Task: structure prediction
Amino acid sequence: MKFSSRQLILAVGAGAAVLITGLGMTGHAAAQTAGKGPTYSGVANSRTPAGQYFKAVNTSTLKVLSVDDFLQAMGVMAAGLGFDCSDCHPGAGSDTVNWVIDTPKKITARKMTEMVATINKTNFGGAQMVTCWTCHHGREVPTTSITLDHLYAAPYDEKDDIVLPGKGVPTPAQTLDKYVAAVGGAAKLAGLKSFIATGGATGYEKLGGGGTFQIFAQAPDKHSVTITFKDHPERGDSTRSFDGKQGWIRTPRGLFTDYELVGTELNGARVDALLAFPGQIKTALTGMHSGFTDTIDDKSVEVVQGSAPGNELVTLYFDQKSGLLTRMVRFGNTPIGHSPTQVDYADYRDVGGIKFPFKYTFSWLDGKDAFTINDVKVNVPIDASKFGKPGGK
Ligand code: HEC
Ligand code: HEC
Result:
């Protein structure tokens, strides 16, 4: 059986999976043999540059990254070529994995990495315009010529990372005001200081089995999500937390079980925390502009893009009819391509005059978790430890 890259990455080590993402890989990692590999301990020191932390990371482009950003870059590579980790690292997903040895593909990938960095530096003023995906488009070897059957066919339908400014569309302020009104109005939202949401989570197309989750959120920017597998206590809890400054991820049974976010995922954690409170949406992002009206699931959506702290590009999609937020995509930065995370919101329900999405899915380069909320409590006190390092110091 050929494992998909999502399966493998989980199997590889929750550390990697986590970095490349969020939560939920726990279930999956448990379902697979967690290949810890011979070289890493369970707790990563994200602040050490990848070139020092790892044994054989030596491209000028990647060796300077933090460990968590380096693993994001691995996810970008794999996705760009439609690869599993094991396509470049033999045994990934098993106990025999050896991350260090150089395979022919790894050697080529090093060259390609430096090539991509050089192309962007010399042709695009350092902006990240060319990535692995640009040429590879999910293939091992890029195609060279068009298949004539496709000559007049529609082009690829990937959405642009950078949304082109739309004409004759509502301004960002108009779209955001409509959203604020739709979820309950500014006055109601100003009174929302905290909430606890609980429910059930499924990860990896249910492969990991069901878990229960708790979301804690406190305005303006504290947020955490914990998934627990009651029927499988051996899996331990997965937690992703952000205390307004620092962020952590805990995933048992991984390459790295505990991890402090220091790279691009820290910016993402902040975006998630800020956007948990709709009243903050107008100040969470800067430099906003509106794109042309788009469609998601055959419904028209208004598109607003802006930047979050740390230069994290964020695109918001609002249902044109209801005004409600239906999708958020944030783009983590790695030197070889963006690492996108997408959250889709649905089933908005009223809780004391404010609408909360009772269903949402969290998708990243290597997986997808689905959350169904069954209870939301608002303005309840939350212990500060919920937002700190999982398990304390
Ligand atoms: C296209 C090939 C390719 C794929 C796919 C790939 N890697 Fe890598 N990996 C590399 C290269 C190249 C390096 C060395 C980078 C350098 O020298 O800067 C590396 C290095 C590593 C290292 C450091 C090992 C050490 O101690 O030196 C780890 C850990 C790693 N990769 C994990 C992963 C994970 C997890 C995945 C799946 C998400 C993955 N890789 C997918 C090419 C790949
Ligand atoms: C400018 C276009 C371009 C970009 C960008 C690019 N590649 Fe490639 N890549 C190629 C071409 C063309 C080949 C085939 C070369 C050949 O067959 O000799 C290739 C081949 C490869 C191969 C070997 C595949 C095989 O089995 O023969 C790997 C691995 C690879 N690229 C990794 C990457 C990674 C990782 C990135 C991003 C860091 C990347 N490439 C970005 C054009 C590109």
Notes: The first strand starts at residue 43 and ends at 44. Confidence is low (pLDDT under 50) at residues 1-38.
